[in-house]
Amino acid sequence: xxxxxxxxxxxxxxxxEPADDARLDANADAEPGADRPLNRRERGVVLARIQALMxxxxxxxxxxxxxxxxxxxxLIPDLPPKxxxxxxxxxxxxxxxQPDWLRRALLxxxxxxxxxxxxxxxxxxxxxxxxxxxxxxxxxDDTPPAGH
Length: 148
Fold this sequence. Notes:
Layout: E1 3-6, E2 9-12, H1 18-26, H2 40-57, H3 61-65, E3 83-84, E4 91-92, H4 100-107, H5 113-121
Antiparallel strand pairs: 1-2, 3-4
Protein name: DNA-binding protein H-NS-like C-terminal domain-containing protein
Pfam families: Histone_HNS
Domain DNA-binding protein H-NS-like C-terminal: 73-118
């Protein structure tokens, strides 16, 4: 028995005709019903596949008629940093796409991966603090203006 995969899920195929494969492959990129409505035979094939999927996953008509609860959000725990820029303190946990700061550090600043790993093991550097802005304006200086 062959299986067809629909959004990554197997669809058991009991009665499968090779002609259906050619039609499905030819229309793989097209939206369903975009070119023409299904004829009686095609509709029967689609309904049979839907029924097979429902049987496979144990879904009933009542399940389809019920309100679908919103999926619970998946909480991804924060991972400790695996890489840290020793100067800027920027971090990356090694998950997902490589951040721009890491590329710059490796390619343009000449750092090595091991340096960034070692920096992640050390305590983070203190945050960069901007000097406090004085309330004194240039006009309040004791220096006389130029030309006087």
